[in-house]
Specification:
Length: 173
């Protein structure tokens, strides 16, 4: 059976190759999810502002601030689903990068990386809407939810390494 993990919890060369392939495929999926035109109009979210073709939601913690304006159970599920999916959006990408690059394995670096990728996505969506009208929304809350997902990936990486190391009877250096 092929081995993906070293005794110290790091990836073997085969494991690195597998994670690199998964990383590339997931990066393509993120591009499709974030940059292709949305085929449908979203549920009307309270707090959205329109500036020509640009659509922004600049209210921090908008789901909580405008909770009283949610008018149906479906609307509530939609907003909760959006927040959960934004937490999970960068999680696989960041976890893969952490497994491949030891130098990224600090909470601060991981949070900055997640925030930076999220900011790049949000600003790119604004630019795409300005140039091509792809029906995207710049949401300030996406920045913190994506960063939270990155932080969860950091803790998952730590847990995974401890588990593998413990299983193999080694010590993490």
């Amino acid at each position: 059976m092929p081995r993906f993990w070293e005794k110290d919890g790091d990836l073997t060369p085969l494991g690195k190759t597998a994670v690199r392939w998964a990383l590339c495929l997931y990066a393509l999926a993120i591009c499709a999810m974030c940059f292709l035109p949305q085929p449908f109009r979203q549920v009307k979210t309270p707090g959205i502002q329109h500036y020509g073709r640009l659509v922004v939601l600049l209210t921090p913690f908008n789901s909580l601030v405008n909770f009283g304006k949610i008018n149906s159970f479906w609307h509530l599920l939609w907003i909760l689903g959006q927040n959960i999916s934004n937490i999970l959006l960068l999680y696989p990408l960041i976890l893969s990068l952490l497994l491949l690059k030891k130098e990224l394995r600090s909470l601060k670096r991981t949070a900055v990386l997640g925030f930076s990728i999220s900011l790049f996505i949000e600003v790119s969506q604004l630019l795409l809407d300005f140039l091509f009208n792809v029906n995207r929304v710049f949401e300030i809350d996406d920045l913190w939810t994506n960063t939270l997902g990155s932080i969860l990936a950091f803790y998952t990486c730590q847990w995974l390494q401890r588990k593998i190391t413990k299983q193999n009877g080694s010590q993490i250096i």
